[in-house]
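Whiteboard transcription, Tuesday session. T.W. wrote the structure tokens on the left side:
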């Protein structure tokens, strides 16, 4: 009955090639656990540079802007971000070494079970304890327990955010508000202990892509700055250090005419209690008894251009990795992901997000594939 999407979704290879395995493998490389699914070599010091929004395809498409990173990319394979391909979910997968279905940070906006309310993972909510919402130990807590010092170098503004406490708790927070500070402080942190894990987070490439588009001069120039940042960080490493460069998701530019507006489409509103997620990865929460009708309506309106699944089928198809029972109610009754470069916006309830040029979240290579670049000092 329902037309099948013309293409198959790119399902993250949970257990073997996502950000969760990178987090777990880094911990193992430092001697903090046994499971090392990516087979990373043992190292006394690890520096992890996370560049928000640096998709694998975007990086490979711009060798002239990013010669240093592209040289490292030559002998490397991409990872998948996980679903949704969004910052809050991906950083928590990396920081816990667990897939989204286990750490429970399942999207940009997810329903708080029992309340008629969404939790925005970037803005958070004072009434929600991040350590209860995301109960898994982080790799930083586990590293510290194993005698490995851990540091998180990132902008001062994120120091006390809910996301920082969900994804990076256990790491000592070192504020760095510029690219020079990021490379410099990370280099110092790596010398603070004999066995150390230092994560450096850069967010401006993502912001530039959202605002100007990944096809813009602004994004291209920012990428060149990121390339320089990575080169400087590589130059600041002490001996016996492994540097890993990765990202939380890629991005696509969504043309203004390629947006379905839920706020102007009554058929997409019928029976819907809360619209969660974001334009390229939607959690749709139905009123009691309306889930089947919402599923049918979303399939009818969006047609083969989107993958639209029931909560049960999204879990069965492994969109989130293995899902803990506690986390199931956080997933939309209906989950929808665009199969191309288009978006499901909500211009009235989400005016800011709906106006962005660059977007991410879906199960396509542009959003999902991210680099894992490696460099080691002797
Ligand atoms: Zn973003």
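and on the right, the sequence the group agreed on:
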């Amino acid at each position: 009955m329902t037309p099948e999407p013309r293409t198959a979704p790119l399902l993250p290879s949970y257990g073997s090639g996502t950000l969760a395995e990178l987090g777990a493998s880094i911990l193992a490389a430092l001697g903090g656990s046994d499971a090392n699914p990516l087979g990373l070599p043992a190292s006394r010091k690890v520096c992890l540079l996370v560049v928000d929004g640096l998709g694998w395809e975007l990086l490979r498409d711009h060798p002239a802007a990013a010669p240093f990173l592209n040289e490292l990319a030559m002998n490397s394979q991409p990872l998948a971000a996980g679903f949704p391909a969004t910052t809050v979910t991906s950083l928590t997968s990396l920081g816990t070494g667990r897939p989204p279905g286990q750490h429970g940070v399942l999207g940009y906006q997810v329903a708080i079970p029992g309340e008629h309310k969404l939790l925005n993972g970037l803005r958070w909510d004072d009434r929600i304890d991040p350590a209860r919402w995301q109960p898994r130990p982080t790799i930083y807590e586990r590293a510290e327990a194993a005698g490995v010092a851990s540091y998180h170098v990132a902008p001062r503004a994120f120091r006390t955010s809910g996301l920082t406490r969900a994804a990076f708790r256990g790491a000592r927070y070192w504020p760095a508000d510029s690219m020079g500070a990021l490379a410099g402080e990370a280099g110092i942190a790596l010398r603070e202990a004999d066995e150390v894990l230092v994560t450096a987070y850069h967010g401006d490439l993502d912001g530039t892509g959202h605002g100007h588009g990944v096809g813009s001069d602004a994004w291209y120039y920012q990428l060149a700055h990121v390339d320089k940042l990575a080169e400087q960080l590589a130059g600041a490493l002490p001996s016996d250090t492994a540097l890993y460069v990765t990202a939380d998701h890629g991005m696509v530019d969504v043309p203004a005419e390629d947006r379905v507006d839920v706020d102007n489409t009554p058929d997409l509103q019928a029976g819907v209690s809360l619209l969660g997620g974001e334009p390229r990865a939607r959690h749709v929460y139905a009123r009691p008894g309306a889930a089947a009708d919402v599923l049918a309506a979303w399939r009818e309106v969006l047609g083969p251009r989107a993958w639209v699944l029931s909560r049960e089928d999204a879990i069965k198809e492994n969109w989130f990795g293995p899902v803990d029972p506690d986390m199931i109610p956080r997933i939309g009754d209906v989950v929808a992901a665009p199969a191309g470069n288009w978006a499901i916006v909500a211009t009235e309830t989400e005016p800011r997000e709906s106006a962005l040029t660059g977007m991410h979240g879906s199960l396509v290579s542009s959003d999902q594939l991210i680099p894992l670049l490696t460099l080691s000092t002797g």
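Someone added at the bottom: The chain is about 35% helix and 20% strand.
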